[in-house]
């Protein structure tokens, strides 16, 4: 019995490897930006995110310890007269080419560097290029030692998130600039009002909410009425109108953007929230009506008949019967529409360029040279928090809606 | 059918339909027709597209924007890429989704595993593109590689690859497709998994008792039963892929041989409306077959009802 169980467990090992392997494969990309969003700009630029928990050696430290520390001391202060912690001494040697030229000079007839390997490298004029490369970390270390340069900060920090929220794009951090009073040309007030900076993610977050919530409620409201008509009212052309609706579901929205943008500029709806609400409502409707109608149509006939026998009319049947019973379907739809609108980029760029939503704001942060990953990763995560929470919390509804829409039957 | 007692006046249904129908007419039907008209006009929509014809150069008169949409080298590249997207992504996502559905069905932590695979569906294409741009990041010069893939290559003693800007356009496209699979496999998995769970257990048991291997049970019994669902997933994926825009827009901007139809359309939206609209019409023409399939399937279902 027990050997049987062991055998069974062993047989299932490959299965677990496949499942866990796939899950890990799916997680790694997202994990990368999550970890990165907590690292300093310099740390992101110089090392992979997977090294975030190990502190890499500062460049040049080992070389300095091997070749220089015996005379100059670990802190560079051992020799009076040549204090390596003094910026005025080190200033001229922050480039390794100049450092080498100086190291070639003998001191009191003795070679500057004792270590024979280093000495050979430094003195060999044929290998100058190699020497420059090898000594670059040493001069970097000297500048850190003297306070001219700054050691890379590998500690984890929340400053990227703050920078992203207020839209800080400078070279330091928002907090550091505010502390030293160098806030970017008066753009920041260094108080809570900075969260409303139009270039910040906090403001974009608010814009996203302002776009998404009405764009979720409106189509469901209108769709509920229409779906009720398709399910429980009799009118000529009911079938073919509904068939048309099935077709409309897949009209690419690219088809409609330009005419709508032109219409909006005539009506004064360009760059208004009302404009984008109406557009998302229009595009949400076919699917919403389809799903709700199938749900309402599947409710038992007797229910409707009996409420009618009690003297109800369509209006009361709609509010007292149809709406309360279709809460699960409405829930599915709400989540669908919410995620769809929240994640949209194209419609937001074209119809609401002046109040950037999260997706649009992120594309504004993209640096073609890849220099601001620290900011971009925090911003991307800020945009994902809400949909991920909604998704995980209401996954059941989401799946149900997906199944009802895609594989009705 | 609506019960007799519920019969109402002829006006009532239209009151319930009015708002929805009006909005759909304004936001879907009217713009679609308008797009078709604008596709026959010039850059700014002021005159017929034929006015831009020059003697000695090929021209299709009023349909000149369609000459661009169908024959220009940028557009043929986009059409080629969309075709390749279809050929790779449809089997790729469906196969990955089916595999996930089958294997996660057999472990106890199914819910957790499926949630993780499905999670990319919740985030925006923009977010996903940032995630993957970072995976593909390439550090030129001597510094350490910060992208996972290139760091792995360096660790294996190989040279890093510019995954999105390679001179070999296939490399760039494959990189984008991987993102697509990461995004959509969860969708396919969810739908296929529900179909698999609906397969009656007795049939599978009977087959196993008769000595069928798991492999045979899958291919001879489960697969034929879920085949209709697979076709639904395929049609949905075809639509998704024909319309693919955000991934390309954010990750490569359509450069280095990665252009797709929707991105071309977007590029011309301001500078050359006629062309942009002709491309949009081409896009909807490509989706019409799927539309017909969907309507037909709907009719069949209604007949059974």
What is this structure, in a nutshell?
The complex is a heterodimer of chains A (409) and B (305). Chain A has 409 residues and is mainly α.
Keywords:
heterodimer; A: 409 residues; mainly alpha; 21 helices; 0% strand; elongated; B: 305 residues; flat
Q: Could you walk me through the main structural features you see in this protein, from its secondary elements to its overall organization?
A:
The complex is a heterodimer of chains A (409) and B (305). By secondary structure, chain A is mainly alpha-helical. Chain A contains 21 helices and no strands. Chain A has helices spanning 2-36, 41-46, 61-67, 69-72, 87-90, 96-104, 116-123, 128-145, 159-166, 174-180, 201-232, 238-248, 254-267, 273-297, 301-309, 314-325, 327-343, 346-351, 358-365, 373-393, 395-406. The mean pLDDT of chain A is 85. Chain B is mostly helical and 305 residues long. Helices cover 69% and strands 0% of the residues of chain B. Chain B has twelve helices and no strands. In chain B, α1 (12-38) packs antiparallel against α12 (273-304), α4 packs antiparallel against α7 and α8 crosses α9 (214-242). The longest helix of chain B has 32 residues, at 73-104. Chain B is flat. Chain B starts with 11 loop residues before the first helix and ends with a helix. At the A-B interface, α1, α2, α11, α12 and α13 of A face α1, α3, α4, α5 and α7 of B.
Shape of chain A: elongated
Kindly report the average pLDDT value of chain B. 88
Could you state the order of secondary-structure elements of chain B as H and E?
HHHHHHHHHHHH
Q: Radius of gyration of chain A, Cα only, in angstroms?
A: 33 Å
Number of discrete helical segments of chain B? 12
Query: How would a crystallographer describe the biggest sheet of chain A?
Result: none
In terms of structural class, how would the helical and strand content of chain A be classed?
mainly alpha
Structural class of chain B: mainly alpha
Low-confidence stretches of chain B: none
Number of strands of chain B: 0
Helix share bin of chain A: 55-70%
What helical percentage do the residues of chain B reach? 55-70%
Measured by residues with Cβ under 8 Å of the partner chain's Cβ, the largest interface is: A-B, 103 and 105 residues
Determine Rg of chain B (CA atoms, Å): 25 Å
């Amino acid at each position: 019995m027990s050997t049987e169980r062991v055998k069974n467990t062993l047989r299932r090992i490959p299965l677990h490897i496949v499942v866990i392997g796939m899950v890990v494969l799916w997680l790694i990309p997202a994990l990368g930006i999550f970890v990165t969003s907590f690292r300093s700009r310099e740390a992101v630029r110089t090392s992979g995110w997977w090294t975030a928990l190990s502190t890499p050696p500062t460049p040049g430290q080992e070389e300095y310890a091997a070749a220089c520390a015996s005379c100059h001391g670990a802190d560079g202060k051992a020799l009076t007269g040549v204090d390596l912690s003094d910026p005025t001494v080190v200033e001229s040697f922050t480039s390794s080419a100049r450092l080498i030229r100086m190291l070639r000079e003998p001191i009191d007839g003795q070679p500057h560097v004792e270590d024979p390997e280093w000495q050979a490298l430094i003195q060999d004029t044929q290998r100058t290029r190699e020497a420059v490369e090898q000594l670059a970390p040493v001069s970097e270390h000297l500048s850190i030692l003297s306070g001219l340069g700054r050691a890379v900060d590998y500690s984890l920090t929340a400053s990227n998130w703050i920078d992203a929220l207020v839209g800080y794009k400078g070279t330091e951090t928002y907090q550091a600039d505010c502390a030293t009073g160098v806030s970017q040309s008066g753009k920041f007030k260094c108080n809570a009002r900075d969260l409303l900076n139009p270039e910040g993610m906090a403001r974009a977050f608010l814009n996203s909410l302002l776009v998404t919530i009405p764009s979720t409620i409106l189509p469901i409201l209108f769709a509920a009425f229409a779906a009720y008509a398709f399910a429980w009212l009799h009118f000529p052309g009911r079938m073919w109108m509904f068939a048309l609706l099935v077709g409309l579901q897949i009209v690419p929205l690219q088809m409609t953007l330009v005419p709508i943008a032109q219409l909006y500029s005539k009506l004064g709806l360009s760059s208004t929230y009302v404009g984008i609400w109406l557009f998302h409502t229009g595009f949400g409707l076919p699917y919403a009506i389809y799903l709700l109608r199938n749900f309402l149509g599947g409710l038992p006939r007797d229910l409707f008949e009996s409420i009618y026998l009690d003297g109800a009319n369509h209006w009361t049947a709609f509010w007292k019967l149809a709406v309360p019973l279709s809460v699960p379907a409405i829930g599915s739809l709400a989540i669908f529409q919410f995620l769809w609108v929240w994640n949209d980029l194209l419609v937001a760029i074209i119809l609401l360029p002046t109040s950037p939503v999260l997706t649009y704001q992120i594309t504004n942060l993209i640096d073609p040279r890849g220099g601001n990953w620290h900011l971009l990763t925090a911003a991307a995560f800020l945009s994902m928090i809400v949909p991920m929470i909604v998704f995980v919390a209401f996954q059941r509804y989401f799946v149900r809606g997906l199944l009802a829409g895609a594989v009705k039957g | 059918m609506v019960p007799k007692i519920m019969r109402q006046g002829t006006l009532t249904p239209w009151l319930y339909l009015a708002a929805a129908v009006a909005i759909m007419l304004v936001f879907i039907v009217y713009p679609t027709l308008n797009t078709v008209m604008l596709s026959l006009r010039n850059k700014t929509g002021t005159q017929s597209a034929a006015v831009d014809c020059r003697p000695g150069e090929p021209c299709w008169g009023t349909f000149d924007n369609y000459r661009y949409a169908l024959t220009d080298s940028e557009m043929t590249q986009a059409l080629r890429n969309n075709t390749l997207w279809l050929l790779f992504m449809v089997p790729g996502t469906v196969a990955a989704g089916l595999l996930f559905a089958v294997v996660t069905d057999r472990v106890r932590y199914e819910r957790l595993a499926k949630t993780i695979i499905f999670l990319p569906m919740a985030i925006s294409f923009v977010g996903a593109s940032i995630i993957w741009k970072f995976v593909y990041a390439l550090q030129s010069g001597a510094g350490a590689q910060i992208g996972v893939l290139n760091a792995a290559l360096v660790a294996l003693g190989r040279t890093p690859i510019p995954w999105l800007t390679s001179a070999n356009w296939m490399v760039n496209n494959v990189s984008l497709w991987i993102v697509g699979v990461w995004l959509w496999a969860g969708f396919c998995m969810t739908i296929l998994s529900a179909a698999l769970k609906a397969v009656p257990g007795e049939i599978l048991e009977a087959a196993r008792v008769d000595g069928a291997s798991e492999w045979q049970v899958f291919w001879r019994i489960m697969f034929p039963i879920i085949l209709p669902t697979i076709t639904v997933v395929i049609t949905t994926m075809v639509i998704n892929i024909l319309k693919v825009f955000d991934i390309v827009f954010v990750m490569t901007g359509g450069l280095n041989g990665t252009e797709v139809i929707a991105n071309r359309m977007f590029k011309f939206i301001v500078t050359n409306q006629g062309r942009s609209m002709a491309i949009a019409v081409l896009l909807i023409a490509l989706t019409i077959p799927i539309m017909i399939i969907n309507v037909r399937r709907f009719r069949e279902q209604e007949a059974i009802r």
